[in-house]
Amino acid sequence: MAQQDTDQQHAGVLPVDDEGFVIDTEDAEEREAAWRERGTTRPITVVGNPVLHKECRDVTEFGEELQQLIADMFTSQRTAEGVGLAANQIGVDLKVFVYDCQDDGGARHVGVVCNPRLVDLPADRRRLDDSNEGCLSVPTAYAPLARPDYAEVTGQDERGNPVKVRGTGYFARCLQHETDHLYGYLYIDRLSKRERKDALRQMAENEPRYPVVAND
Asked: 57 is in which domain, residue-wise?
């Protein structure tokens, strides 16, 4: 399908491919920088903060307030040297995440997803990858966690248009990790009790390299 035809079918912020998935690798550096220029760094909420442990509210308003939140999220993500950030990680109870993440092939993906839902894949497409995983809300801690090495997410872009995102390898892990956040799950919630305890020990023994919100 020609690019012009694709654009006519998709009124969203990013172009899409022949299967309707966003092309989020084009102008990635410029788009991420444009968001950050408008944003302000906010401190990261950490495990134990109530906003991280419940499902967030759906995004229903796609105006300037949301645009500023997204800009702040991109800025906060860069300050913390992360590859993905959910709104509740800066204390905002809304279903939106941003990402600036490379896949295993080295392609840089940059985008925004509001009201995300993971597509349930058939068993024959679920090849598990048990690489290490970390989280800005569990600073300095890492643990191996098996997740599918391919993921698809549906939702809306920053203007409210329908959007589909897919990723492989590390980027697939990012999409799953950030969607989990917005439904009240941290990656350590998927670990065994022993592994979770070890991750929390790692966090307690080290100092985060970015500003965080202390839990009272």
From this structure: 28-209
When divided into structural domains, the chain yields a total of: 1
The answer to whether residue 9 is domain-embedded is no
> CA 49, CA 33: separation in Å to the nearest integer?
30
The answer to whether the annotation marks 177 as part of a ligand binding site is yes
Active site residue 178: yes
Domain for residue 71, yes or no?
Answer: yes
Please give the DSSP secondary-structure letter assigned to residue 214: P
DSSP secondary-structure letter at 215? P
Q: Is residue 216 part of a domain?
A: no
Residue 13 falls within a domain, yes or no? no
Q: What is the pLDDT of residue 216?
A: 66
Here the CATH number for the domain that contains residue 203 is 3.90.45.10
Tell me whether residue 181 is annotated as binding. yes
Distance of CA 50 to the CA centre of its chain: 19
Mean pLDDT of the chain: 93
CA 118 to chain centre: 12
Q: Which of 32, 133, 152, 178 is catalytic?
A: 178
Global pTM exceeds 0.85: yes
